[in-house]
Amino acid sequence: MFTGLVEEVGAIKEVRPAGKAIHLVINADVVMEGIALGDSIAVNGICLTVTHYDRQSFTVDVVPETMRRSTLHELSGGSPVNLERAMAMGKRFGGHIVSGHIDGVGRILSIVDEDIAKVVRIAAPADVLRYVVEKGSITIDGVSLTVMDVDSESFRISVIPHTWQITVLRHRRVGSTVNLECDIIGKYVEKLVAPHAGGRKSSMSMDFLRNNGFA
Fold first, then answer.
1. What share of the chain is helix, strand, coil (3-state, %, to 5)?
2. Model confidence, pTM
3. How far, in Å, CA of 75 to CA of 68, rounded?
């Protein structure tokens, strides 16, 4: 489990093909502290397992399913990546609940300066947008952000200068693809109430939630 607060930007040292899978070797600093085999580290928002490490880098395996559903196949030597270790008990929970399991891939439509902020509009698939809520949380390449607004094809976020500068977001351009993870709570609520709605996922509504004690 993660919070969406990136600890550092690492760099891809090596990409080793393994059929439809890959092994990624990633140079890092902060996340190397106390690292152990089997640790979970979010790489651009994707929960991956440490299979090997040395003093300056660690290795993770990326299976074909993860390759198909994320942007990791676009990485090459030198690519910057957001890194976050799994959440530790007893620390402040500054972001939101992030599983590191990607819901889909979005595409940046525009990046606009608004005073100190960068306002980014991102196109997303319909099965992702169904869980995107105005002023709700969303994870973009592992970064916990707040949704400004949403329409039938896209949503916008506003990024403060600090977040823009210390994450890989500053390397993104119009047309760039990004990993998206929606707030996990909405997905679980839908799964729980679906049997009471005759199994029809599209029957979810605020009236239905109120009538069943969820809102």
1. 25, 40, 35
2. 0.86
3. 13
